[in-house]
């Protein structure tokens, strides 16, 4: 029996040895595929970083008769007008300026006086319609095809509203604007955005408000890039709130509340499927959360940086401030933009292990950069600053004129709402 068992074991080994080899070969091949894929993904990120580091000035806007800080930038992106897109810029002199995107030649200017215009957004499906929130308690819509200075549509708030932030959702159906705190009241106000294409100026009343989720100025609002019912808001109360506006009431609509522990200056969406949110604060902090972990036991926080100025090492220079961020879909990478008071622009990569410098753009601005628009598809960057310059950057570009404006010595019309809060990090779902 012992001999028979031994012979049987040898037979099994002989018969199945090729199968064992096949399994080993399969495992080896799988490991090689995984390694190759990782190497490919790394090279894709490195390629993006090389392109960003190679950005050079392609165009400058013509100096304006009335210099002003350039506070926010947006670009029309309708597929119907690929060859003649526009750039809109909100300025510290209470105006909104429109430029040709390719040449940066000035086209039109709209005034918010006596109110101050805050933020600028083009409609997603109409490249001629541009919106801005106004401190007079309205959101105004202009049609740049019309020569008149009058807004073609006015979205009115309530009597005490002073709007300092806003956004329009990805299907152009809903506008949301955030208010300054008046007495004890802070609002997110919503309107039906449809019907903004008429030539005659009309006024629309709000659909409704959220009034319980923030207790201080709502400084920034950002709708989800592809899901029209999702919107995130940030405030000087330190809270970053995510809402699903399809819900019947504010309490049900509030999906998550994250605390940055400081006054929020910028918010955005990131990650595959845009299931992550991030924010920057007025004291240069950075927070990054993963909403996909809300219903799990995993931590929602991906990265927290108390002061980005201390976290990013830059040889022979420094990081003085953060401007904003953008998620690069192809590279699956979040990038931040910061700079120096002398006008240098720092491009910063963001990972769960921290922040790292990609490259520095110099020789363009001569003062603090306040605004940008990063065109991922075309690998170009638009920047605006306190030197009143609007610059277009492209990889390997060569600028014909290298004259650089000096810093403007004017007082900013934008209040720096810096209030640091020490309350603990929390999430509504955690």
From TrEMBL:
Pfam families: WD40 (PF00400). The chain crosses the membrane at residues 6-23. WD repeats lie at residues 110-152, 211-253, 362-393. SMART domains: WD40. It comes from the Eukaryota. Keywords: Membrane, Repeat, Transmembrane, Transmembrane helix, WD repeat. The keyword Transmembrane applies. InterPro entries: WD40/YVTN_repeat-like_dom_sf (IPR015943), WD40_repeat_dom_sf (IPR036322), WD40_rpt (IPR001680), WDR89 (IPR039328). PANTHER family: WD REPEAT-CONTAINING PROTEIN 89 (PTHR22889:SF0). This is WD repeat-containing protein 89. The lineage of its organism: Eukaryota, Metazoa, Chordata, Craniata, Vertebrata.
């Amino acid at each position: 029996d012992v001999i028979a068992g031994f012979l049987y074991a040898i037979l099994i080994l002989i018969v199945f040895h090729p199968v064992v080899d096949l399994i080993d070969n399969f495992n080896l091949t799988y490991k090689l595929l995984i390694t190759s894929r990782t190497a490919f993904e790394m090279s894709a990120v490195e390629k993006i970083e090389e392109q960003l580091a190679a950005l050079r000035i392609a165009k400058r806007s013509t100096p304006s008769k009335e210099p002003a800080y350039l506070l926010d930038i947006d670009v029309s992106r309708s597929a119907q007008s690929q060859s003649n897109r526009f750039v809109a810029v909100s300025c510290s002199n209470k105006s909104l300026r429109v430029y040709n995107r390719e040449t940066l030649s000035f086209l039109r200017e709209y005034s918010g006086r006596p109110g101050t215009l805050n933020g600028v957004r083009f409609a997603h499906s109409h490249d001629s319609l541009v919106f801005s929130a106004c401190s007079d308690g309205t959101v105004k819509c202009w049609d740049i095809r019309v020569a008149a200075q009058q807004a073609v549509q006015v979205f009115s708030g309530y009597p005490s509203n002073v709007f300092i932030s806003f956004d329009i959702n990805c299907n152009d159906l809903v506008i949301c604007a955030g208010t300054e705190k008046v007495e004890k009241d802070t609002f997110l106000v919503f309107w039906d955005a449809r019907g903004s294409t008429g030539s005659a100026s009309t006024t629309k009343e709000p659909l409704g408000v959220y009034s319980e989720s923030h207790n201080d100025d709502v400084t920034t609002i950002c709708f989800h890039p592809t899901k029209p019912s999702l919107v995130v808001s940030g405030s000087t109360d330190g809270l970053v709130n995510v809402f699903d506006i399809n819900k019947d009431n504010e309490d049900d609509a509030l999906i998550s509340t994250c605390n940055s522990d400081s006054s929020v200056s910028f918010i955005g969406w990131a990650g595959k499927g845009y299931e992550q949110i991030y924010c920057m604060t007025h004291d240069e902090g950075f927070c990054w959360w993963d909403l996909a972990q809300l219903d799990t036991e995993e931590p929602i926080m991906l990265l927290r940086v108390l002061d980005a100025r201390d976290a990013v090492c830059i040889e022979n220079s420094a990081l003085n401030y953060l401007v904003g961020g953008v998620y690069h879909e192809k590279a699956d990478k979040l990038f931040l933009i910061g700079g120096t008071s002398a006008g240098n622009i720092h491009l910063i990569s963001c990972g769960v292990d921290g922040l790292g410098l990609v490259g520095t753009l110099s020789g363009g601005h001569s003062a603090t950069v306040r605004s940008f628009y990063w065109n991922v598809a075309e690998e170009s960057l638009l920047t605006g600053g306190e030197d009143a310059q609007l610059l277009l950057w492209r990889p390997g570009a060569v600028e014909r004129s290298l004259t650089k404006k000096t810093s403007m010595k004017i007082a900013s019309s934008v209040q720096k709402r810096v209030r640091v809060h020490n309350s603990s990090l929390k999430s509504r779902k955690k």
